[in-house]
Amino acid sequence: MSLVSDPVAVAAPSPLTSPARLAAVRATQLLDTGPDEAFNRLTRLVSVVLGTPAVMLTVVDEVRTFLKGTPEPARIVGPDGVWSAPVEDSGCKVVIESGGEICAGDVRADPRLRDLSLMTDFGAAAWLGVPVRDPAGQVVGNLCAMDVVVRDWTPLHRETIRTLADAVEGEIALRLALRETERQAVAAARDAAEIETLARTLQESLLPAQPPRLPGVDIAARFLPGGSGVEVMGDFYDAVPTPDGVAVVIGDVQGKGAGAARTTALARSATRTAAHFENDPAAVLRTVNDVLHVWFDGRTSFVTAALASLRRGPSDTWHADLASAGHPPALVRRADGTAEFHGGGGLVLGIGTTPMVADEAVTLAAGDSLVLYTDGITEAHVRGHWEQLGEEGARRTLASLDPGADADTIARALTDAALAHCGGHLSDDAGVVVVQVEEPGTGDVDRVVTEHVPHAGVGRETRRSAERVLVGWDLAPGTLADAMLVIEELVANVVDHARTAFRLTLVRGRDALRIEVDDEGAGGPLLQPLDLRAARGRGLQLVDAVAQAWGCDPRGRGKRVWAELAAR
Prior knowledge:
Residues 218-437 form the PPM-type phosphatase domain. Keywords: Hydrolase. It holds the Pfam family GAF. This is SpoIIE family protein phosphatase. InterPro entries: Bact_Sigma-Reg, GAF, GAF-like_dom_sf, HATPase_C_sf, HATPase_dom, PPM-type-like_dom_sf, PPM-type_phosphatase-like_dom. Helices cover 34% and strands 25% of the residues. It is of the alpha+beta class. The chain has a 6-stranded antiparallel sheet, sandwiched between helices. The chain has a 5-stranded antiparallel sheet with strand order 7-16-15-12-13. A 5-stranded antiparallel sheet has the order 8-9-10-11-14. Strand 20 and strand 21 form a beta hairpin. Helix 2 (37-50) packs antiparallel against helix 8 (281-296), helix 5 (155-187) runs antiparallel to helix 7 and helix 12 (458-472) packs antiparallel against helix 13. The longest helix is centred in the first third of the chain and has 33 residues, at 155-187.
């Protein structure tokens, strides 16, 4: 006779006490210490932009929450310079256990928050908190804003605090990377190849992996490091899809290395956030100036930038509004091969509270190209000789190309001209971004392609970029929700199983929305029978339920998984 006991249900471990999360928190080396000025500056930005009297950045282990940043730390910390509280009393626990954003316009109406003693102690009537993650995606803390009155948190408020939480994550990642660099340098006698690899990895995180593919325009970019090539560049660019076109920015941060990397990440994030809500490029640069001025906090530093906001005009033309803050003028290369200067001027960002931004408008026809570049191109010269390539040299380079040169050819021509003029040794970083208007019929009118490489946050990165495009297409709420679900599941399959670089393509036709994910993994997804007891495996069931059709097609070394939805 045998006795068989009934199975005992084992409760899932709390995210708060997850060993992996706690190891990530301890690895930051931010516990048991007081506020840090780098984080204080970021919380001041949150306070200024959101208009809230209290902002706190905390890191949290399983027992206590430690304050790491707040606009006025002296008003909170004790004699030892440290402030901490039991985690059970704080909203941090709610954020960590949910793993997502907590938005409470009225704390009294949220049962998760209203009875927490810290809410009462700080007089929080409204509360907005977002998770702060390490590079592996573990939640190590929380960035929150509090107000003493009930208020509505707008989409701009929420996007702002998320963007600045990204900047906090970048600071943490940078410290971890620098700490790892120092450890490896000691162990390997400052192995030059290892330092170069780490610098390149950090640099890649500050530039888009690939220029986005947007309907009606072709975007190409080329960036080259100056000096020894092992320090992080101060040049950056970004292209932000907007509801009626695209905003393209190029900038140059004073200096190099870790300090420039932090400023680059912040400037790029601030530009992306402002461009998402503001159509006027001069207003965007003024917003970036406000952010940088608070960030520099009296330190001598600055950023030059040029921003172009492009939107469709009549008869296959595009209208470009140009704004410049201390940046070289843009070049417009016409379809017939001629090249002319536009824009330029203004004063650098971050120096004062009232920026001077120059602006100009220009119309681009099919085949025309807008060329933005940094002064590393025009100031290229041979060491010991001061004859520079110059703006006129850049213009002649573009005018010498065949009229039909594409965007990538134009970008390469300028960087090659700079390298040739300085004998292959750039003293400063050099960057070029080209936006070329496509001929009618050469592109899919509503088609966006983005390319991604596998890393811890790639799922979140892909969802955010896709959501910006789909929101700009003004889809019905139900279609948008279904599309985001399909994208999340198809990308999760690549991340969990293929683990390769992948391409996400969004195509909107008259009656259908098509989503394609191309990767280099072998085999295809299989629709499994629904098992309600299984912890995973429902992703394709959800895709099958919301899509009109879906499938998997072999493509070269890999495959394409696609789904189509009604574009209501």
